[in-house]
Amino acid sequence: MKFAMNSPIMRVAVAAGMGATLLLSAAPACAQLGGTMSATPRAASEVIANDLTDASIRILGWIDEGGTTIHEYATGDGLIFAYTWQGPTMPDLDRLLGPYKASYRAKATALLATGGSLHASRVAQSDVVVDSGGQMRSYVGRAWLPAVIPPGISPADLQ
């Protein structure tokens, strides 16, 4: 049986497919540094792995609406201690940084005013560190909480 592209069945099928795609690529709702990782993945595009080291580390990955891959790192208890990203757009750092966003923005603005680079930056504070860099359509970065990184894990492990 053939269906015409403008048939009601095809329109429903295409709409359902588009809706499923949006659901599968959506990021977890309230995830942020210092928050709690969901116990189960919310979409099929998310991946959980527990093999970074002997420590119980959980990693949740997804692709945001801009096509950027984001990885969320949490302790065995689910406390989110880091994010990494790589892709064609910058992720929503305000959402990822949560309660750390205001101090990050203030320090980043001050660094930029004193001659910092637009292409690469490191905003290091006692409570949060954010490395970010790249150029148009190619951004990479990571943000982590130094006091919460589990023993045996270093920022270099966050990829």
UniProtKB/TrEMBL annotation:
Keywords: Signal. Pfam families: DUF2844. It comes from the Bacteria. Residues 1-31 form the signal peptide. This is DUF2844 domain-containing protein. It comes from Paraburkholderia humisilvae. The lineage of its organism: Bacteria, Pseudomonadati, Pseudomonadota, Betaproteobacteria, Burkholderiales.
